[in-house]
Amino acid sequence: MASSLTKESVSPGTPGSEKTFFGHPRGLATLFMTEMWERFSYYGMRALLPLYLVAPGGMGLSAGTATAIYSVYLSLVYLLTMPGGWFGDRVLGPRKTVAVAGAVIMLGHLTLALPSAGTFYAGLGLVALGSGLLKANISTMVGQLYDGPDDPRRDGGFTVFYMGINLGAFFAPLIIGTVGEGVNWHLGFALAAVGMGLGVLQFLLGSRHLAAHSSVVPKPLSAAEKSSTLRKAALWAGIAVVAYAVVGFSGHYTLNWILVPLTLLGLIIPVLVLVRIKRDRSLDQAEQSKMSAYIWFFVAAAVFWMIYDQGGSTLAIFADASAENSVLGWQFPVSWYQSVNPVLIMAMAPVFAWFWLALNRRGKEPSTIVKFGSGLVLVGASFFLFLAPLSITEGGHKAAAMWLVAIYFTQTVGELLLSPVGLSVTTKMAPVKYASQMMGVWFLAVTAGDATTGLLSIAGVDLNKPGVVAMEATLAVVAGIAVWMYRGKVKALMGNVR
After folding, report:
1. Please, what are the domains in the chain?
2. Residue scoring higher pLDDT (291 or 14)
3. Which partner from 35, 177, 279, 481 sits 20 to 30 angstroms from 286, CA to CA?
4. Would the pTM count as exceeding 0.85?
5. What does the buried/exposed string (b/e) look like for 214-240 if buried means 16 or more CB atoms within 10 Å of the residue's CB?
């Protein structure tokens, strides 16, 4: 996207005081482009991943194993945002952490580009680690461009930044997916590395426009804390190395020795984090009450993401095997379906924002709880809709591409109802003591949802069976109705948050 740069009078010392980016500090252009290229690499690789895993010319795995790997990978990305934020706060500072994260992601994609099954999983791990480091810290730097939370440009800046995410997500499957599916899988993964490389280059060249305190470590570790952290890390790493060496040399190693522990961590850690915060006796009664209400939103969000993120695995694998991927006789790569969501987000997000403002002026805007429940019902409805193409293929026919587009459309509307509301309610209901950690807690809902999908796949559940799809759809709809039915109780727990 071309940067619209105009002269603006700003106080001296403000980042980007000479020029602006759509009326925002010039540093926003740096972060916008960095995030756009990072999302280009991430979503391009993600669009290829399940298809490569099941392809005869790829890994040749079963659909269940491919879904498990894909789900565990996604859960790891979001699980690692919390330690990623901690690393930026305590070790390197946001700016250096993002630069390191970009380099790790690029190395991960280059490792994926190697034609070796042995290095493939190492590449996935590196991309997940780098994404966790980057995701938490780049958003922090966007906020640092503005003069505190009351700066009137702040919300607009995050909106522009969000558009960068969706631009990268839109173009990635069209370019990386086309090359990966049509030319060579590993060349597609290499293109993802090129995208991240451009992001790192853009970030390094434009870092002079960022806020000066983005390179400051907010709360550096003391010498004693560094020593303790290193000892604990070495201990756990040693235990893991010994355990896997024993399993490997005894001839019992299978992929599940990696997948099962990671899946269980994706379920256990979110629970432990919520329990730790809820049992903190230093929280006052109002904060305790808000955390009780937040648990409702957290569980509901986990159900939502469990279904929503199958758009990249269950639906993609179904499209690859059983859909007529053409429009008016024109064939297109299966990975292109992953561009439907970002283009719909870009088209509909401004409409939703305008609609909520119009309703708010009339005093008719739905409450947070109603929006949340509606998002759940819609994601459930998308899987009830999925039953139609499943039934078509049972008769030996191919399902039309528009069935899948309709499913993605329904899920996107649900996302616009639930995701922005979830982010907002997380910041509003966070106890003061955990204000900087709660955004990571919100991402743990995604981790829990994806880990549940991974566990089902590892257990041998065929997620493309009509009975399973109907069960998941029913779960989401029932959860949405439950949130709505108990809205009075949840609203009372929320206190002054609306």
Report:
1. 19-206 (1.20.1250.20), 262-326+336-498 (1.20.1250.20)
2. 291
3. 481
4. yes
5. beebeeebeeeeeeeeeeeeeeeeeee
